[in-house]
């Protein structure tokens, strides 16, 4: 009879085993349970919805709930929170080293009632119609996010999770996204979709950077319709005409007819490049900070 696998062999197999296969396998073996908590758990994605949790695209809770009447709403919300709590405990309890590529919060409410917190390393986090200030009630991030994707009607930016994200994406399904404080963000990479009053917002950012400075390598992108981009850059001539510049050192797909600008930041050798970027997929207004 062949000898069993060594600890190092078991560790290697378990660490890279599909998460939803690993969990039931370890539950059946006392030997595996003793080493399971010490082995990193690698998950491609966790989707946390108001009614279910999905791990690696597989629902672990049926999307069925009692019909809710007005006098049962509070009871139902507590029940959903309790289900989320039990699912987190059952699948992720005791794991000291959890690596997740992407976590999605989708329309989740009453996170304060879940009362369970999981520590994990996450590369990308997306939040759709959620309050980002509530996330710390469920997950504890071990390191800064590579990417943070926020979709909401009002986006809260005054939060450490936002500040430390290496790339920040802001989007809304409706016109009228509001992004208070965006000009003060420390983030170097920001992409904004479908923003209303875009011209006012961009001017606010430029003026703040002129007075207060911004780190070299910062790039803010604003996705716009081609004609809107043209109109905004044309109107910028009235404010920044003296700073027109062909930006010949920039290797990019410029808007063929729009003006480009190189605006100085007060008291420094830094400049803000302002121009339109156009390709087959979309068009964007670019704000980029460089040193000259």
Task: Describe what you observe in this structure.
The protein is of the alpha/beta class. Among the domains are: 1-38, no CATH class; 216-292, no CATH class. Helices cover 27% and strands 27% of the residues. The protein is built from eight helices and 13 strands. The chain has helices at residues 7-15, 19-27, 30-36, 73-92, 160-164, 198-212, 226-235, 237-240; strands at residues 41-49, 53-55, 58-59, 98-106, 118-128, 139-141, 147-151, 168-171, 189-193, 219-224, 261-264, 270-278, 283-291. It is elongated and about 75 Å long.
Give the arrangement of secondary structure elements.
Blueprint: H1 7-15, H2 19-27, H3 30-36, E1 41-49, E2 53-55, E3 58-59, H4 73-92, E4 98-106, E5 118-128, E6 139-141, E7 147-151, H5 160-164, E8 168-171, E9 189-193, H6 198-212, E10 219-224, H7 226-235, H8 237-240, E11 261-264, E12 270-278, E13 283-291
Parallel strand pairs: 1-4, 4-5, 5-6, 5-7, 7-8, 8-9, 9-10
Antiparallel strand pairs: 1-2, 2-3, 10-13, 11-12, 12-13
Number of strands: 13
Secondary structure category: alpha/beta
What is the CA-atom radius of gyration, in angstroms? 24 Å
- What can be said about the biggest beta sheet? 13 strands, mixed
The coarse overall form would be: elongated
Proportion of strand residues: 25-35%
The number of helical segments is 8
Helix content: 25-40%
């Amino acid at each position: 009879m062949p000898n069993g696998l060594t600890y190092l062999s078991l560790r290697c197999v378990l660490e890279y085993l599909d998460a939803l296969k690993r969990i039931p396998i370890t539950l059946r073996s006392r030997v595996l349970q003793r080493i399971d908590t010490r082995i990193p758990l690698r998950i491609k994605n966790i989707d946390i919805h108001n009614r279910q949790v999905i791990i690696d695209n597989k629902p672990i809770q049926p999307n069925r709930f009692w019909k809710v009447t007005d006098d049962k709403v509070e009871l139902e919300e507590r029940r959903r929170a309790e289900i989320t709590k039990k699912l987190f405990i059952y699948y992720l309890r005791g794991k000291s080293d959890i690596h997740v590529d992407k976590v999605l919060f989708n329309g989740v409410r009453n996170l304060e009632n879940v009362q369970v917190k999981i520590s994990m390393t996450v590369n990308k986090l997306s939040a759709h119609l959620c309050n980002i200030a509530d996330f710390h009630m469920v997950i504890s991030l071990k390191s800064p996010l590579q990417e943070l994707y926020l979709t909401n009607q009002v986006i809260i930016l005054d939060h450490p999770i936002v500040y430390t994200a290496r790339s920040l994406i802001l989007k809304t399904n409706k016109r009228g996204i509001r992004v208070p404080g965006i000009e003060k963000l420390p983030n170097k990479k920001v992409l904004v979709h479908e923003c209303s009053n875009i011209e006012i917002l961009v001017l606010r950012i430029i003026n703040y950077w002129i007075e207060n400075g911004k780190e070299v390598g910062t790039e803010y992108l604003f996705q716009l319709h081609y004609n809107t981009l043209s109109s905004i850059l044309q109107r910028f001539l009235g404010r920044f005409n003296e700073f027109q510049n062909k930006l010949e050192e920039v290797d990019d797909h410029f808007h063929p007819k729009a003006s480009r600008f190189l605006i100085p930041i007060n008291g420094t050798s830094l400049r803000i490049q302002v121009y339109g970027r156009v390709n087959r997929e979309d068009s964007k207004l670019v704000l980029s900070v460089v040193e000259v």
